[in-house]
Design brief:
Blueprint (H helix, E strand, L loop, with lengths): L2 H12 L5 H13 L1 H18 L9 H17 L23 H27 L6 H19 L4 E7 L7 E6 L6 E6 L8 E9 L2 E8 L6 E5 L9 E8 L10 E6 L1
Helix pairs in contact: 1-2, 1-3, 2-3, 4-6, 5-6
Length: 260
């Protein structure tokens, strides 16, 4: 057995996920192998640190449902996989009863990242020459994936945006991780973007209002749009309607607004 296999056993031993034979095999090896013994001690330190992580907060049910509906809609609109396409079926190794909850979340996210990543590459490869919107589809999937990852982060924060009269009937939530640029708008039933117009994200702080990305809506389903900036300490977020290309000065008519 090579050292790569023993390193995998070290990780399993730290999480309590080894059979009796595997555990004995690793511990006998670690008695005479200083690098593997050191790795095992480091893993103990890591799991101890993870056990002190903040208690996880569950994302609002409406936010989860909106993200999942958006992913389902994009999958239905994509071309069916070709015969023989590879499918990721899931994790084959059973996690033991001693596995930390945070380790399970990391495993689920890893599977989601691989699965969605492979699907994005597959869609891009198959549609690049036939569909000019392949890049936009890949970007939507990446945004949905990012929003779900933020919603799973125990540090995340959320804020609801109010729909102003031009966007009556729509709703929106901002989900973000303070201290990072991981921040997303999740909007439902935003009216279709008029011709020669775009929606634009903004945030407000003590220095004024600041323009961010532009996007469009077809008037149906859910839209997930990245802010691309750290929203920690910001006072408010809003969506406006602007001419094609977006605004750089004063914002146009407000569609969504809410304090952060």
């Amino acid at each position: 057995m090579d050292h790569r296999a023993y390193r995998e056993l070290a990780a399993g031993d730290a999480m309590g996920d080894l059979s009796r034979v595997e555990r004995l095999r690793f511990r006998v090896h670690a008695l005479r192998c200083k690098p593997c013994a050191a790795l095992r001690r480091d893993l103990d330190d890591t799991t101890a640190t993870l056990s002190l992580a903040p208690v996880q907060r569950r994302a609002p049910a409406a936010l989860w449902e909106a993200i999942l509906r958006s992913i389902a809609a994009d999958r239905r609109s994509a071309a069916p996989p070709e015969p023989g396409a590879v499918t990721i079926r899931g994790v084959t190794r059973r996690l033991g009863a001693g596995t930390f909850a945070v380790a399970a979340i990391v495993a689920v996210l890893a599977v989601a990242v691989v699965g969605l990543g492979l699907r994005t590459v597959e869609l891009s490869d198959r549609l690049a020459t036939a569909d000019a919107n392949a890049g936009a589809l890949a970007a939507r999937i990446a945004a949905q994936q990012g929003a779900m990852a933020v919603a799973l982060d125990p540090r995340h924060a959320t804020a609801s945006l109010d729909a102003l009269p031009p966007a009556a009937g729509s709703s929106a939530t901002v989900v973000y991780t303070p201290g990072s640029s991981a921040a997303y708008l999740v909007a439902q039933h935003l009216p279709a973007t008029p011709a020669d117009r775009v929606y634009q994200l903004w945030y407000a702080d003590g220095a004024g209002v600041h323009p961010l990305a532009t996007f469009t809506s077809d008037g149906s389903g859910v839209i997930v749009v990245p802010f691309g900036t750290d929203l920690a300490g910001k006072k408010a977020a809003m969506v406006t309607l602007e001419p094609t290309g977006g605004a750089t000065g004063a914002p146009g008519p407000q569609m969504l607004f809410g304090p952060l």
